[in-house]
Amino acid sequence: MAELESKGVELGGRLLVSDRAHLLFDLHKEVDGAREAELAGNKIGTTKRGIGPAYASKATRNGLRVCDLRDWESFTKKLRTLAADAKARFPDLPYDEERDIADYKSYAEKLLPFVTDTIEYVNNAYDSGRRILIEGANATMLDVDFGTYPFVTSSNPSIGGIVTGLGLAPGKFDAIIGVAKAYTTRVGAGPYPTEIFGDLGEKIREIGREYGTTTGRPRRVGWLDMVALNYATKLNGFTHLNLTKLDVLSELKEIKVAVAYKHAGKRYTSSMPPDIPTLEAVEVEYETLPGWGTDISNVRTWEGLPAAARAYVERVEQLAGVEVRWIGVGPGRDAVVTKPVRKA
Protein backbone atom coordinates (compact mmCIF):
# COMPACT_ATOMS: atom_id res chain seq x y z
CA MET A 1 0.00 0.00 0.00
CA ALA A 2 2.78 2.41 0.90
CA GLU A 3 4.60 1.67 -2.35
CA LEU A 4 1.48 2.32 -4.44
CA GLU A 5 0.73 5.53 -2.61
CA SER A 6 4.32 6.70 -3.05
CA LYS A 7 3.78 6.41 -6.80
CA GLY A 8 0.65 8.50 -6.69
CA VAL A 9 -1.90 5.68 -6.80
CA GLU A 10 -5.11 6.55 -4.96
CA LEU A 11 -6.32 3.52 -3.00
CA GLY A 12 -9.57 4.87 -1.58
CA GLY A 13 -12.54 3.22 -3.25
CA ARG A 14 -10.23 0.99 -5.31
CA LEU A 15 -8.68 -1.39 -2.81
CA LEU A 16 -10.85 -3.65 -0.68
CA VAL A 17 -9.63 -6.29 1.77
CA SER A 18 -11.81 -9.21 2.79
CA ASP A 19 -12.69 -9.32 6.48
CA ARG A 20 -12.40 -13.12 6.21
CA ALA A 21 -8.86 -13.19 4.79
CA HIS A 22 -6.32 -15.03 6.93
CA LEU A 23 -3.24 -13.24 8.23
CA LEU A 24 0.29 -14.48 7.57
CA PHE A 25 2.79 -13.62 10.31
CA ASP A 26 6.58 -13.74 10.56
CA LEU A 27 5.84 -16.77 12.73
CA HIS A 28 4.59 -18.65 9.68
CA LYS A 29 7.73 -17.78 7.73
CA GLU A 30 9.96 -19.11 10.50
CA VAL A 31 7.93 -22.32 10.75
CA ASP A 32 8.11 -22.71 6.96
CA GLY A 33 11.89 -22.58 7.03
CA ALA A 34 12.10 -24.96 10.01
CA ARG A 35 9.88 -27.53 8.32
CA GLU A 36 11.78 -27.34 5.04
CA ALA A 37 15.07 -27.82 6.91
CA GLU A 38 13.68 -30.98 8.51
CA LEU A 39 12.96 -32.49 5.11
CA ALA A 40 16.65 -32.42 4.18
CA GLY A 41 16.98 -34.30 0.87
CA ASN A 42 13.21 -34.50 0.36
CA LYS A 43 12.50 -30.78 0.24
CA ILE A 44 9.28 -29.58 -1.37
CA GLY A 45 10.87 -26.41 -2.74
CA THR A 46 8.78 -23.96 -0.74
CA THR A 47 9.36 -20.23 -1.16
CA LYS A 48 9.70 -20.02 2.64
CA ARG A 49 7.21 -17.16 2.68
CA GLY A 50 5.03 -18.88 5.28
CA ILE A 51 2.15 -19.76 2.98
CA GLY A 52 1.94 -23.45 3.92
CA PRO A 53 2.03 -22.85 7.69
CA ALA A 54 -0.57 -20.07 7.32
CA TYR A 55 -2.89 -22.53 5.59
CA ALA A 56 -2.11 -25.07 8.30
CA SER A 57 -3.25 -22.54 10.89
CA LYS A 58 -6.43 -22.06 8.89
CA ALA A 59 -7.06 -25.82 8.72
CA THR A 60 -6.41 -26.38 12.42
CA ARG A 61 -8.67 -23.40 13.15
CA ASN A 62 -6.21 -21.42 15.23
CA GLY A 63 -5.41 -18.89 12.50
CA LEU A 64 -6.16 -15.19 12.76
CA ARG A 65 -8.23 -13.32 10.20
CA VAL A 66 -8.47 -9.68 9.18
CA CYS A 67 -11.69 -9.29 11.15
CA ASP A 68 -9.71 -10.13 14.32
CA LEU A 69 -7.92 -6.80 13.97
CA ARG A 70 -11.12 -5.09 15.10
CA ASP A 71 -10.82 -6.56 18.62
CA TRP A 72 -7.28 -5.82 19.73
CA GLU A 73 -7.43 -7.61 23.06
CA SER A 74 -8.69 -10.79 21.43
CA PHE A 75 -6.15 -10.44 18.60
CA THR A 76 -3.15 -10.29 20.92
CA LYS A 77 -4.40 -13.24 22.95
CA LYS A 78 -4.90 -15.36 19.83
CA LEU A 79 -1.49 -14.49 18.43
CA ARG A 80 0.29 -15.38 21.67
CA THR A 81 -1.57 -18.71 21.71
CA LEU A 82 -0.58 -19.37 18.09
CA ALA A 83 3.06 -18.59 18.88
CA ALA A 84 3.05 -20.88 21.91
CA ASP A 85 1.70 -23.72 19.78
CA ALA A 86 4.45 -23.24 17.18
CA LYS A 87 7.20 -23.03 19.79
CA ALA A 88 5.99 -26.24 21.39
CA ARG A 89 6.80 -27.89 18.06
CA PHE A 90 9.97 -25.86 17.35
CA PRO A 91 11.40 -24.72 20.74
CA ASP A 92 14.25 -22.75 19.16
CA LEU A 93 12.03 -20.85 16.75
CA PRO A 94 13.43 -17.28 16.46
CA TYR A 95 10.12 -15.47 16.69
CA ASP A 96 9.24 -12.46 18.84
CA GLU A 97 5.44 -12.28 19.10
CA GLU A 98 5.55 -9.03 21.05
CA ARG A 99 7.32 -7.29 18.19
CA ASP A 100 4.76 -8.68 15.74
CA ILE A 101 1.94 -7.49 17.96
CA ALA A 102 3.41 -3.98 17.93
CA ASP A 103 3.82 -4.09 14.14
CA TYR A 104 0.26 -5.27 13.60
CA LYS A 105 -1.04 -2.46 15.76
CA SER A 106 0.21 0.01 13.15
CA TYR A 107 -0.86 -2.26 10.27
CA ALA A 108 -4.41 -2.38 11.66
CA GLU A 109 -4.70 1.40 11.73
CA LYS A 110 -3.75 1.55 8.07
CA LEU A 111 -5.69 -1.49 6.88
CA LEU A 112 -9.04 -1.36 8.66
CA PRO A 113 -10.49 1.49 6.55
CA PHE A 114 -10.19 -0.81 3.53
CA VAL A 115 -11.71 -3.90 5.15
CA THR A 116 -15.15 -4.96 3.98
CA ASP A 117 -17.45 -7.91 3.40
CA THR A 118 -16.15 -8.76 -0.06
CA ILE A 119 -18.66 -11.59 -0.52
CA GLU A 120 -21.50 -9.09 -0.37
CA TYR A 121 -19.57 -6.56 -2.45
CA VAL A 122 -18.77 -8.93 -5.33
CA ASN A 123 -22.20 -10.51 -5.46
CA ASN A 124 -23.91 -7.12 -5.34
CA ALA A 125 -21.72 -6.04 -8.24
CA TYR A 126 -22.75 -9.14 -10.18
CA ASP A 127 -26.43 -8.61 -9.44
CA SER A 128 -26.21 -5.02 -10.67
CA GLY A 129 -24.76 -6.13 -14.00
CA ARG A 130 -21.14 -5.12 -13.40
CA ARG A 131 -18.45 -6.90 -15.39
CA ILE A 132 -16.11 -8.87 -13.12
CA LEU A 133 -12.63 -10.07 -14.07
CA ILE A 134 -11.04 -12.61 -11.73
CA GLU A 135 -7.35 -13.43 -12.06
CA GLY A 136 -5.94 -16.69 -10.75
CA ALA A 137 -2.37 -17.41 -9.68
CA ASN A 138 0.12 -20.29 -9.68
CA ALA A 139 -1.16 -23.15 -11.86
CA THR A 140 -3.55 -26.08 -11.85
CA MET A 141 -0.68 -28.54 -11.48
CA LEU A 142 0.22 -26.80 -8.20
CA ASP A 143 -3.31 -27.30 -6.82
CA VAL A 144 -3.16 -28.97 -3.41
CA ASP A 145 -5.91 -31.42 -4.42
CA PHE A 146 -5.33 -31.95 -8.15
CA GLY A 147 -1.66 -31.14 -8.69
CA THR A 148 1.60 -33.07 -8.36
CA TYR A 149 1.17 -33.60 -4.63
CA PRO A 150 3.15 -33.05 -2.41
CA PHE A 151 5.04 -30.72 -4.78
CA VAL A 152 2.18 -28.24 -4.80
CA THR A 153 1.09 -24.98 -3.21
CA SER A 154 -1.23 -24.92 -0.21
CA SER A 155 -4.36 -23.67 -1.93
CA ASN A 156 -6.61 -24.34 -4.94
CA PRO A 157 -5.35 -22.25 -7.88
CA SER A 158 -7.89 -24.06 -10.07
CA ILE A 159 -11.49 -23.09 -10.76
CA GLY A 160 -12.62 -24.16 -7.28
CA GLY A 161 -10.46 -21.47 -5.72
CA ILE A 162 -12.77 -18.81 -7.16
CA VAL A 163 -15.75 -20.26 -5.33
CA THR A 164 -14.01 -20.88 -2.01
CA GLY A 165 -11.78 -17.82 -2.14
CA LEU A 166 -14.16 -15.21 -3.48
CA GLY A 167 -17.60 -16.51 -2.59
CA LEU A 168 -18.95 -16.24 -6.13
CA ALA A 169 -21.16 -19.16 -7.22
CA PRO A 170 -19.93 -21.21 -10.23
CA GLY A 171 -23.16 -20.60 -12.14
CA LYS A 172 -22.16 -16.94 -12.45
CA PHE A 173 -19.06 -17.59 -14.58
CA ASP A 174 -19.52 -16.55 -18.21
CA ALA A 175 -16.07 -17.40 -19.59
CA ILE A 176 -13.14 -19.33 -18.15
CA ILE A 177 -9.87 -18.48 -19.87
CA GLY A 178 -6.93 -20.83 -19.45
CA VAL A 179 -3.54 -19.09 -19.60
CA ALA A 180 -0.68 -21.30 -20.78
CA LYS A 181 2.81 -20.56 -22.01
CA ALA A 182 3.81 -21.90 -25.42
CA TYR A 183 6.26 -24.03 -23.44
CA THR A 184 6.21 -25.02 -19.75
CA THR A 185 8.00 -23.88 -16.61
CA ARG A 186 8.26 -24.95 -13.01
CA VAL A 187 9.93 -23.49 -9.91
CA GLY A 188 11.26 -25.80 -7.23
CA ALA A 189 11.28 -29.56 -6.86
CA GLY A 190 8.83 -32.06 -8.27
CA PRO A 191 8.30 -34.29 -11.31
CA TYR A 192 8.62 -32.64 -14.71
CA PRO A 193 8.22 -35.12 -17.61
CA THR A 194 8.89 -32.62 -20.44
CA GLU A 195 11.82 -30.79 -18.83
CA ILE A 196 14.55 -29.55 -21.17
CA PHE A 197 18.12 -29.80 -19.95
CA GLY A 198 21.45 -28.45 -21.11
CA ASP A 199 22.12 -25.55 -23.44
CA LEU A 200 18.66 -25.52 -24.99
CA GLY A 201 16.97 -25.31 -21.61
CA GLU A 202 19.29 -22.48 -20.57
CA LYS A 203 18.64 -20.67 -23.85
CA ILE A 204 14.86 -20.76 -23.42
CA ARG A 205 15.21 -19.69 -19.78
CA GLU A 206 17.26 -16.65 -20.74
CA ILE A 207 15.11 -15.59 -23.70
CA GLY A 208 11.94 -16.02 -21.63
CA ARG A 209 13.47 -14.44 -18.52
CA GLU A 210 12.26 -17.39 -16.52
CA TYR A 211 13.08 -16.52 -12.95
CA GLY A 212 10.68 -16.79 -10.02
CA THR A 213 8.67 -13.63 -9.31
CA THR A 214 8.79 -14.14 -5.55
CA THR A 215 12.19 -15.73 -5.03
CA GLY A 216 14.18 -14.95 -8.17
CA ARG A 217 15.04 -18.64 -8.49
CA PRO A 218 15.71 -19.92 -12.03
CA ARG A 219 12.64 -21.68 -13.36
CA ARG A 220 12.95 -25.10 -14.89
CA VAL A 221 11.74 -25.11 -18.50
CA GLY A 222 10.24 -27.78 -20.74
CA TRP A 223 8.24 -28.48 -23.86
CA LEU A 224 4.53 -27.75 -23.92
CA ASP A 225 2.81 -30.60 -22.08
CA MET A 226 -0.59 -31.24 -23.66
CA VAL A 227 -1.34 -34.00 -21.16
CA ALA A 228 -1.15 -31.49 -18.31
CA LEU A 229 -2.96 -28.81 -20.34
CA ASN A 230 -5.77 -31.21 -21.28
CA TYR A 231 -6.05 -32.26 -17.65
CA ALA A 232 -6.28 -28.61 -16.59
CA THR A 233 -8.87 -27.99 -19.28
CA LYS A 234 -10.96 -30.88 -18.00
CA LEU A 235 -10.77 -29.69 -14.39
CA ASN A 236 -11.44 -26.03 -15.08
CA GLY A 237 -13.78 -26.15 -18.04
CA PHE A 238 -11.82 -23.65 -20.14
CA THR A 239 -13.88 -21.88 -22.77
CA HIS A 240 -10.83 -20.22 -24.36
CA LEU A 241 -7.05 -20.38 -24.14
CA ASN A 242 -4.54 -17.54 -23.97
CA LEU A 243 -1.23 -18.93 -25.27
CA THR A 244 1.58 -16.69 -24.03
CA LYS A 245 5.27 -16.20 -24.85
CA LEU A 246 5.12 -17.73 -28.32
CA ASP A 247 7.93 -15.36 -29.28
CA VAL A 248 10.34 -17.15 -26.93
CA LEU A 249 10.38 -20.14 -29.31
CA SER A 250 11.14 -18.07 -32.42
CA GLU A 251 14.81 -19.07 -32.67
CA LEU A 252 14.17 -22.82 -32.50
CA LYS A 253 14.37 -24.88 -35.69
CA GLU A 254 12.12 -27.57 -34.27
CA ILE A 255 9.61 -27.47 -31.43
CA LYS A 256 8.37 -30.50 -29.54
CA VAL A 257 4.92 -30.90 -28.05
CA ALA A 258 4.17 -33.68 -25.55
CA VAL A 259 0.94 -35.40 -26.65
CA ALA A 260 0.88 -38.42 -24.33
CA TYR A 261 2.51 -40.22 -21.41
CA LYS A 262 3.02 -43.97 -21.52
CA HIS A 263 3.53 -46.21 -18.52
CA ALA A 264 2.86 -49.86 -17.73
CA GLY A 265 0.71 -50.37 -20.81
CA LYS A 266 -1.40 -47.26 -20.24
CA ARG A 267 -1.44 -44.16 -22.42
CA TYR A 268 -2.36 -40.85 -20.79
CA THR A 269 -3.61 -37.95 -22.93
CA SER A 270 -5.88 -35.97 -20.61
CA SER A 271 -5.44 -37.52 -17.17
CA MET A 272 -2.50 -37.46 -14.79
CA PRO A 273 -0.99 -40.26 -12.71
CA PRO A 274 -1.85 -39.50 -9.07
CA ASP A 275 1.48 -40.56 -7.57
CA ILE A 276 4.96 -39.15 -7.98
CA PRO A 277 6.80 -42.44 -8.73
CA THR A 278 4.55 -43.12 -11.73
CA LEU A 279 4.80 -39.56 -13.00
CA GLU A 280 8.59 -39.71 -12.74
CA ALA A 281 8.65 -42.98 -14.68
CA VAL A 282 6.41 -42.09 -17.62
CA GLU A 283 7.70 -42.17 -21.18
CA VAL A 284 6.72 -39.01 -23.03
CA GLU A 285 5.34 -39.22 -26.56
CA TYR A 286 6.18 -36.13 -28.62
CA GLU A 287 5.16 -34.54 -31.88
CA THR A 288 7.77 -32.36 -33.56
CA LEU A 289 6.70 -29.22 -35.38
CA PRO A 290 8.85 -26.89 -37.49
CA GLY A 291 9.95 -23.57 -36.05
CA TRP A 292 9.46 -20.25 -37.84
CA GLY A 293 12.92 -18.75 -37.39
CA THR A 294 11.89 -15.12 -37.35
CA ASP A 295 11.11 -12.47 -34.75
CA ILE A 296 7.36 -12.13 -34.13
CA SER A 297 7.43 -9.62 -31.27
CA ASN A 298 6.10 -6.80 -33.48
CA VAL A 299 3.31 -8.83 -35.07
CA ARG A 300 -0.20 -7.80 -34.01
CA THR A 301 -2.44 -9.73 -36.43
CA TRP A 302 -3.12 -13.42 -36.92
CA GLU A 303 -2.36 -13.14 -40.63
CA GLY A 304 0.95 -11.46 -39.83
CA LEU A 305 2.29 -14.49 -37.96
CA PRO A 306 4.52 -16.90 -39.93
CA ALA A 307 2.69 -19.95 -41.26
CA ALA A 308 4.64 -22.26 -38.95
CA ALA A 309 3.70 -20.19 -35.91
CA ARG A 310 0.02 -20.31 -36.90
CA ALA A 311 0.33 -24.06 -37.42
CA TYR A 312 1.76 -24.45 -33.92
CA VAL A 313 -1.15 -22.55 -32.37
CA GLU A 314 -3.69 -24.50 -34.43
CA ARG A 315 -2.15 -27.81 -33.37
CA VAL A 316 -2.48 -26.78 -29.72
CA GLU A 317 -6.14 -26.01 -30.39
CA GLN A 318 -6.68 -29.39 -32.00
CA LEU A 319 -5.03 -31.28 -29.16
CA ALA A 320 -6.80 -29.28 -26.44
CA GLY A 321 -10.21 -29.12 -28.09
CA VAL A 322 -10.40 -25.48 -26.98
CA GLU A 323 -10.08 -22.33 -29.05
CA VAL A 324 -6.90 -20.29 -28.63
CA ARG A 325 -8.24 -16.73 -28.75
CA TRP A 326 -5.17 -14.74 -27.68
CA ILE A 327 -1.47 -15.26 -28.41
CA GLY A 328 1.27 -13.44 -26.50
CA VAL A 329 4.18 -12.45 -28.74
CA GLY A 330 6.26 -10.25 -26.42
CA PRO A 331 6.63 -8.82 -22.92
CA GLY A 332 4.60 -5.64 -23.52
CA ARG A 333 0.92 -5.38 -22.66
CA ASP A 334 0.13 -4.64 -26.28
CA ALA A 335 2.13 -7.61 -27.57
CA VAL A 336 -0.95 -9.74 -28.15
CA VAL A 337 -2.42 -11.24 -31.28
CA THR A 338 -6.16 -11.85 -31.22
CA LYS A 339 -7.03 -14.88 -33.30
CA PRO A 340 -10.16 -14.49 -35.40
CA VAL A 341 -13.17 -16.41 -34.12
CA ARG A 342 -13.36 -19.68 -36.01
CA LYS A 343 -16.48 -20.24 -38.02
CA ALA A 344 -18.84 -23.00 -36.91
Automatic annotation (TrEMBL):
Pfam family for this entry, one: Adenylsucc_synt
Residues annotated for substrate binding in this entry: T213, T214, T215, G216, R217, P218, R219
Family named by the database record: Belongs to the adenylosuccinate synthetase family.
Reaction(s) the record says it catalyses: IMP + L-aspartate + GTP = N(6)-(1,2-dicarboxyethyl)-AMP + GDP + phosphate + 2 H(+)
Co-factor binding details: Binds 1 Mg(2+) ion per subunit.
UniProt cross-references to Gene3D superfamilies, sorted A to Z: Adenylosuccinate Synthetase, subunit A, domain 2, Adenylosuccinate Synthetase, subunit A, domain 3
Name used for this protein in its record: Adenylosuccinate synthetase, chloroplastic
Database matches in NCBIfam families: purA
Main location: plastid
Taxonomic superkingdom: Eukaryota
Cofactor: Mg(2+)
Active site: K58
Residues annotated as binding GTP: R219, K245, L246, D247, G328, V329, G330
Pathway(s) the chain acts in: Purine metabolism; AMP biosynthesis via de novo pathway; AMP from IMP: step 1/2
E.C. designation(s): 6.3.4.4
Task of the protein: Plays an important role in the de novo pathway and in the salvage pathway of purine nucleotide biosynthesis. Catalyzes the first commited step in the biosynthesis of AMP from IMP.
Compartment(s) of residence: Plastid, Chloroplast
Biological process according to GO: 'de novo' AMP biosynthetic process; IMP metabolic process
